[in-house]
Amino acid sequence: VAEDPSMRLVDGEVFTSDYLDGLAEEINQVLHEAGQLRLVELAARYNVTTQFLLDAVTPRLGSILQGHLENGMLYTPTYVARQAASVRGAFSAITRPTPV
Known about the structure:
Layout: E1 7-10, E2 13-16, H1 17-34, E3 36-38, H2 39-46, H3 50-57, E4 68-70, E5 73-75, H4 77-94
Antiparallel strand pairs: 1-2, 3-5, 4-5
Helix pairs in contact: 2-3
């Protein structure tokens, strides 16, 4: 394991790059169904530490995993765009004069 960079030993378990790629694909699928996911919940689901999951997910963002990571949350680009449009709409509404 020490000589092979495609393998990682974490808490007595060996993880390969192929396994981590598959894990990222599965997370991507769940993410696109939900729109947003907490890393803590994903770590519990896959029985790994949050830091390990963060280390596994971060290099795969934008390639295998289509999402945005911020403050321990994964978001789809669609979710981020929808939230931005909602905020923009709210600010637009409060800047218009309203008849009394």
